[in-house]
């Protein structure tokens, strides 16, 4: 059975911890883009990276869903993600590895069928929210570009022009 991951910040394509590039540096199989997904919550700005605090009443936070592979390859990719996110099994980490059910919209010309997938993801520990600024953003990349003066999306809110959760059925 395939392992899926939802990434919403620096692990997204083109960002500083791009998951596919990180996998290639470790000679791991490239994760396959399954589609775009959303998780409800609030994005926090820690400067160079975001944190997602899950909240069922929050905004639909945009991210990408990747198929990490079957057991061995998928577990190796999760171990790499744990390292990037500095997961400490003893506790005290800013990020936590958790599971979430994500509505996925496949990319044009491929991916999985639209629907729910159970994914691993890395939300922040609520204890760390005092270290960052809560944002109204729904997309880290658009928000970061607007904050840093680049173009892409609505620079004030970090939201794309069209909501990505339109038509999403409830879980």
* Helix/strand order: EHEEEHEEEH
General form: globular
N-to-C CA distance: 21 Å
Tell me which oligomeric state these chains represent: single chain
The mean pLDDT is 86
Helix content: 10-25%
Structural class: alpha+beta
Low-pLDDT runs of 5+ residues are 152-171
Strand content: 25-35%
Give me the number of helical elements. 3
Count of DSSP E strands?
7
Largest sheet: 7 strands, antiparallel
C-alpha-based Rg, rounded = 15 Å
Q: Could you characterize what this model shows?
A:
With 171 residues, the chain is α+β, with helices and mostly antiparallel strands. The chain has 3 helices and 7 strands. Strands 1, 2, 3, 4, 5, 6 and 7 form a 7-stranded antiparallel β-sheet that branches. A hairpin with a 4-residue loop joins strand 2 (32-45) and strand 3. The longest helix has 14 residues, at 71-84. It is globular. 36% of the residues are buried. Residues 152-171 have low confidence and may be disordered.
């Amino acid at each position: 059975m395939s392992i899926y991951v939802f990434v919403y910040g620096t692990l997204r394509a083109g960002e500083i911890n791009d998951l596919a590039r990180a996998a290639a540096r470790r000679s791991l199989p490239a994760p396959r883009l399954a589609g775009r997904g959303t998780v409800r919550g609030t994005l926090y700005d820690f400067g160079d990276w975001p944190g997602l605090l899950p909240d069922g009443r929050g905004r639909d936070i945009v991210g990408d869903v990747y198929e990490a592979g079957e057991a061995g390859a998928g577990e190796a990719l999760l171990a790499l993600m744990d390292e990037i996110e500095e997961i400490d099994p003893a506790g005290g980490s800013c990020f936590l590895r958790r599971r979430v059910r994500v509505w996925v919209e496949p990319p044009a010309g491929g991916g999985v069928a639209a629907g729910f997938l159970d994914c691993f993801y890395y939300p922040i520990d609520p204890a760390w929210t005092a270290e960052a600024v809560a944002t109204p953003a729904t997309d880290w990349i658009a928000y970061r570009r607007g904050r840093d003066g680049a173009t892409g999306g609505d620079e004030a809110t970090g939201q794309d022009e069209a909501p990505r959760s339109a038509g999403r059925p409830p879980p």
